[in-house]
Amino acid sequence: MKAIVYTGPNTVALFERPKPTIQDPTDAVVRLLHASICGTDLHILKGDVPNIKPGRVLGHEGVGIVEELGSAVHSVQIGDRVLISCMTSCGACRFCQKGIASHCETGGWVLGNHADGTQAEYVRVPHATLSLHSLPEAISSHDALAVSDAFPTGLECGVLSANVQPGGSVVIVGAGPVGMAALLTARLYTPSLIVMVDLDHGRLTTARKLGAHATVDSSAPDAQQQLMGLTDGLGFDSVIEAVGIPATFQLCQEIIGVGGRIANVGVHGTKVDLHLERLWDRNISIHMSLVNATTTPRLLRLVESGALDAGSLVTHHFPCDEANRAFETFQAASQHQALKVAIDF
Q1: Boundaries of every domain in the chain
Q2: Where does the Enoyl reductase (ER) domain lie (predicted)?
Q3: Does the pLDDT of residue 269 top 90, yes or no?
Q4: C-alpha closest to that of 90 among 130, 149, 30
Q5: Whose CA is closest to 180, among 288, 337, 48, 64?
């Protein structure tokens, strides 16, 4: 099979690899229709996830057709069209029982990390019973792709962790795919103010089209003042950091309101300062987590009903033979007005 392989700092290449086979009774083998590139994949290329070594097939997001099933898997059938969850979970260990599937003792972030991932013509999916979701006919494979990771991450790590409430104020720092997913899912909770912050004017325009009430260019000298002005100087009830660099987390600390919550979604590869000397008496909470993907069935129901436009995030498609072009496009997203970049098989 063809597979997109991490070959070293900032490089990937297309290789021929053996087709995966069932190794455990709980496995499934899925033939990919679409995979996508995540911001985490770019962090891998940058060296921010040093445990991932060259030679790994990347990817933890995808939609495909079930090709083979282990004897213990009865939730899906061969030939079913399925969404592959970004997290695999056994459902039985202490972490799964707590609802923290991202730390499953034999699962979690496996694909594209501890095992070969979805950016290939076939992928072996461990713990398939809880890690594959059958897709209703009403949901296109294209639209489902962003529900593999971006939407559960935006909802769980962003919106729910930031305690977005009806009538509240929300700011999302970072208008990438996960930031946009946080915007779309935040709207479901009817806050009175949603503000998107980014450097990319194209993405800010897209954010306004998707329902942001206001946008702020974070490179503006008075960006912090603009943001505080939108809340009459009170700061935001819910602050979602969706970039993963020190400057954006610093901004989040400056604009949080009394009693508010900061939800960190970004993948941080370098040290970040936490200013407790200014925050200790403001009754705030800071939450950080990996996505558990426990909301995936709920999100699929919202997509099926038309309440959530998941397909709006997938802006570019490339055949797998053009993997380098796909990664280059995502790495230079602002030049190409790209959000989610899909790889088609």
Answers
A1: 2-149+292-344, 152-288
A2: 8-343
A3: no
A4: 130
A5: 337
Model confidence at 181: pLDDT above 90: yes
pLDDT at 274: 95
Query: What pTM does this model have?
Result: 0.94
pLDDT confidence tier of residue 331, bands split at 50, 70 and 90: very high
Question: 152-288 — its CATH code?
Answer: 3.40.50.720
- For residue 150, pLDDT over 90 is answered with yes
Q: 2-149+292-344 falls under which CATH superfamily?
A: Medium-chain alcohol dehydrogenases, catalytic domain (3.90.180.10)
